[in-house]
Amino acid sequence: MAVRIIAVLLSLMVFWLFVIPVPMGIINAGNITGMLVSAILMFVFIFWGRFSSFVSSLWEKPAGKIFVSVTSLFIAAGIVLAVVMSVCMAREMNDPPKNDNTTIVVLGCKVKNGRPSLMLARRLDAAYKYLSEHETVCAVVSGGQGSDEAISEAECMKIYLTEKGIAPERIFMEDKSTTTKENLAFSKKLIAENGLPQKVTLVTDGFHQLRAEMLAEKEGIDSPYNISGYTAFNVTPTYWVREWFGIVYYKLFG
After folding, report:
1. Which tens digit of pLDDT belongs to each residue from 146-169?
2. pTM for the predicted model, two decimal places
3. Disulfide: which of 14, 60, 82, 118 matches 38 by Cβ 3.0-4.6 Å?
4. How many other CB atoms are there within 10 angstroms of residue 55's CB atom?
């Protein structure tokens, strides 16, 4: 009984971790999946006796045995895949350049009322820290203008960095892209046109680095370095799980 109570409480805690971003307007595959899975686990642990009896009754029938076996294999495969992806994501979170022969590429994110969203601001803060410590390095700020954005993400990022003291001539704007793939393809072209160092350092959120690197390498950007912005704990689980779906989708259809 004590184990079941602990399991129910842990499932409830996980559920609330994925609920927290909802009032902030963040609803995506990550927190929907997290809430659904944790709710199912709570239900299973609360009604463990009935659940066990139901599974046992299924197991007694040939079709039920197949269903239970396939479902168990599917769940196990999903867990293994999630663990493998998480390990790979964690490994790519922080791989800073070995020298100054690099070009920083800051990947775009939401702009609100002409100013960077919290997530974008934290990416820019990470870029600013590196640029202020390495005064010969230039940056490409990459992101177009969405229908609900007053200015392009690139322009917003350049304003933010120059206000913090980075010289405007060190910042190159790529303001036409609408996806991460375009961020990277258009930034690569801009780097070549301006004679900037070809070795790229990606600046984005830690959870996004693995997929960004996959996309970069597909665009011919070889083994990019990584610098990650800080992601708030209360939204990390949601975006981390969403990224699993992004990685799988990219591997299947990218």
Report:
1. 888 889 999 999 999 999 999 999
2. 0.92
3. 14
4. 15
